[in-house]
Queue: 4 jobs
Job 1
Amino acid sequence: MTSKPTLAVVGATGAVGSVMLQMLTHHADVWGEIRLLASPRSAGRKAAVRGVECEVLALSEEALEGVDLALFLVPEAVAARWAPVAATKGAVVVDTSAAFRADPDVPLVVPETNAHAARLRPRGIVAGPGCTTLALVVAVGALHAEFGLSELVVTAQQAASGAGAGQAGVDALRAQLGLVAGHDDLGTQPGDVRRAVGENTGPFPGPLALNVLPWSGMPGADGASSEEERVRDETRRILALPALRVAATCVRVPVVTGHSVSVHARFERPVPLDRAHEILATTPGVVLYDDPAAGDFPTPADVVGTDPAWVGRVRRSMDDERALDFFVCADNLRKGAALNALQIAESVVTYL
């Protein structure tokens, strides 16, 4: 391709779309026309990208004409309907939803870990994993490359803005914080927080303010949630370990943006702690921030708005020389969605 490719941002007015437009402004200028698409109710709005005010167009077959690469930053149902349409019209689609993550003809890609997988696209679509998987897989993948991962036990602390909640989750958390503010005795009696919040739970199954909710997603098999199944299935696909043992628990926490994951990873060989630190310190997309004695470890409040996965509390398991325990945080709207999609797009564009 001699001219710069045309890029469509589908879902440009959503939370992830807004982050994407900021990133496009600050990343390398490899695109020609950037076309902003959204639902009909958002059509006509203006949004800035690369210093230019652009009109948002309604998502339609006509709006997808002439697009070389389409970033889909939309709910699963919208992606399932429209991504194949864009691909049929000749665009390479990069989708952030769960619509195609399990499709064997759609590569599931994290560029720092398996960028090569994006080159083979039978359906013209490349998928990115969920924000929880993205928070941990870059670090886990780097360690796997040296020591051979055999088992993974994770507890994900998911922010209110995470998958399935979005802006509605953020709005619900902020409203609940207002309802519980100023009540010094809340959280001391059974049900008192629930009574204070009342029916203002938003997309959550209970109050999130002053609370945590050990559930995220839809019911899955054998008591697991769909989010927990996805962490297992996506990690297996990205690392090409179809039989990897994975135990995941997803917990929604009263954080606006920024997922955290407590990780217990077991490997095929003993893990020298100094070598683990060296690997994590030199892995692209990872920042090692690990000096607990000085109070230095990642928290979601400190890493929000940044691109890397931040890793700390790295230690060898007290009872297993082949296991490593650590804590990782990442902005679920940036690396957890927008940044990964843009990295895929920038790697694919060289082959268009």
Job 2
Amino acid sequence: MTIKRSLPWFFTLFLLLVLLSAKTQPAGYYDAASGLSGNALKTALHNIIDNHTTIAYDWVDEALKVLAEDPDNSSNVLLLYKRTSTPKTNFGSGVDNWNREHLWPSSHGNFGTSPPEGTDLHHLRPTDVSVNSDRGDKDFDDGGTAHPEATACNFTSDSWEPPTAVKGDIARAIFYMTVRYEGTNGETDLEIADTYTNTSTGNGSLGVLATLLQWHNDDPVDDAERTRNNLIYSNYQSNRNPFIDHPEYVNLIWGTALAAEPTNHVTYFSANTITLRWTDAVGGVLPVAYLIKMSATSFDNITTPTDGTVENDSFWVKNVSYGLEEVVFSGLTPGSTYYFKMWGYTGSGASVDYKTDGDVLQISLEAR
């Protein structure tokens, strides 16, 4: 349903109630997503947050006056990109006014300012009018030239880099949008792209995935973001941003983290050899290969691989066929202890990304 603008005196009362009544998520809100990863988790979260209560576009500015209120000055809002405080009454289209910024630009999906996409408060923020115009419909990415007005932002002809303090907030809003809008019920199918997108097609894509993942991991959820999420849920839309409540969901769906370490490690011995066998990892982001390093001295002498660096032939690499895997170390000295560490990884060349979450698998064995 759509809430329409009411009388000014009623809305003033409504705003007071908003400030007093924000609630956290109800018990069991994410039960349907428990234990899932990958597309299964994405689908479950979509079903949880779908069909939210919408508001009319001409009510968005009033909601933003609450959601972005300056904690040091209740008459002001904090601008997303400039990181400055400006009077709530300064809303408009003139120079130095503030207006509504769609973090997911409407041109990346042709949804305009119509509900639900165009008025979804989870991706709407107050910004300076001219800064909003300069961001336009650029993809999110690092780099470029410092903006002359929003000096903590950088930009190119294709990309926009926001201030460090809000990078994670923006990334989680974009992750929310691509889960909330899956092309059902006449809505746009929004998806995060691996690279810059062609906005002229209005195809519902926005980049850049790797950058947004990095922003999410580098700028964790804070109390201000949680409060905003609670207000949107309890007083406006009756749905939540899952990636604020459960930041780990990001990596379970798209993330830099690979799936859990392989299980069922079985070891076999024969003359001067050690054979390592394992069952492949399972989960949302499977490795394309495994890297195993060996030392005859200690675990400490086995260095952690560096992302973007392909290890040389002195280390063991096992390609994945998704089943029982094995690698044989031969020419060993009987009675000596050898130490092994294993990583899964994705990508190749400059894009190789070694597993960094959790503990690296460690095995010490004696050759026979």
Job 3
Amino acid sequence: MREIIISRQEEGQRLMRYLRGYLPGAGSGFLHKMLRKKNIKLNQAKADGTEKLICGDRIQIYFSEETLKTFRQGTSTALQVKKADEKTRLSPLRRQIKVLYRDQDVLFLHKPAGLLTQKSGPGDDSLNDYLLDYWAREIMAGKDLPPSFRPSVANRLDRNTSGIVACGLTTRGLQILSSLFKNRELVKYYLCIVRGTVTGSRRLRAYLKKDEEANQVALYKEAVEGSAPVETWYETLCSGREASLLKVRLVTGRSHQIRAHLSSLGHPILGDGKYGDPEFNRNLKKGSRSLMLHSSELILPERTGSIPDSLRGLKIRDPLPEEFREALLMFSLT
């Protein structure tokens, strides 16, 4: 018999989800059968798999070690935390990552432009890889890593966009953040430098359709097949003859939404190689990978309920990166 004690990082999961992660070689039907036959128990009592686990719960699995080994085989390599080597840890992009806020459930990080939020290939480094390394090294140092939980980012930024990325350090933290993003309860502000003179504020509405193969979006005035409604608000903070600084609020949060919306108005973002103006982009220093789009502020709702008091109304702010400040000076937008 093997007994597993649920850690704080793992609480909040349903028992069946936990078992599927812990025993990936066993099918759901088999696990339900083992629960019915009491070969798997929760706190020495019969369970049906729908129970929500809390810290300190004990799961008893009455399998032989050989059977356990068989069902444990094939455990996702994502569950294995591999610490970054010294070269990766000291890479220029990783050195720019900053912790903006941390508590026992959530972590907010500054992502530098040029770094992927999540890797797209085996050889990539990403903010999520940094998070796993940080978690194992700084938070779980000297402790046994929980077998069925790993922290994860809860939102994404484009590779060349800088700014705030929210991360869950526990199952509870991930659930809270995922719910807030899904229900659009977070207020998200961006700062960007765009071509031309812009004044005032405006609320933009359109329908966005993404070409997954080309990784590019198109905007339409009316709904078309495969499109989704998008809404973007902006306010002009500073305006010049060649460029303007805008504060943008994402009302919806679709891929490339801000970039495509502003470009459709004739005000593409500086440094945007996909929707931008090559002539305007030449103002950036050669070799720069930065898009002058920065996720600068994230505001959590005031409502009570599942959100802990420590997070209610929390405002996360991320100062502008150096390249962005240099571009503001170049266009006298200060």
Job 4
Amino acid sequence: MKTRFINAYRGNTFFLMNILKDLKDEDMMLNTGESNTIGWILGHITHSRGSLLKRFNKDVEIKEFEKNFERGAVKNKDLKVNLAETLKDFSSRGEMLAGTFEEFTDEDFNKDLGIPMPGGKSDAATVLSFLTWHETFHIGQIDLIKAACGKGGIK
């Protein structure tokens, strides 16, 4: 099971880095009108990785600014993110998560995290399954926004 989550976080990092490789800081403000900006979505999934690491008692700095990207935060299309810095945080947090899962036992994946998921389960494996899907969803969303704004999509 651990390999599944390690590969998911590393794979998501790889795909996101490729999707964003040709963009600049100003491109983080792109949106489709109704969508969040690319930068907001990137901040959101980066924050999500940090929050998950905190839940596993890992030493990770979550910057005060990142609270703007929490689930349920007020939508603010004027928030600007530094692309290089945010990608660095996203990547390093992904590696920290992969390292965490390397140490996990089956018992760790069965521990209740107290975060109810659709279907009512809240064990670590269920929460991680949802969160990796959540990231993948948002990475796809970023690519769709990028394409809709004329910046090309995955080829």
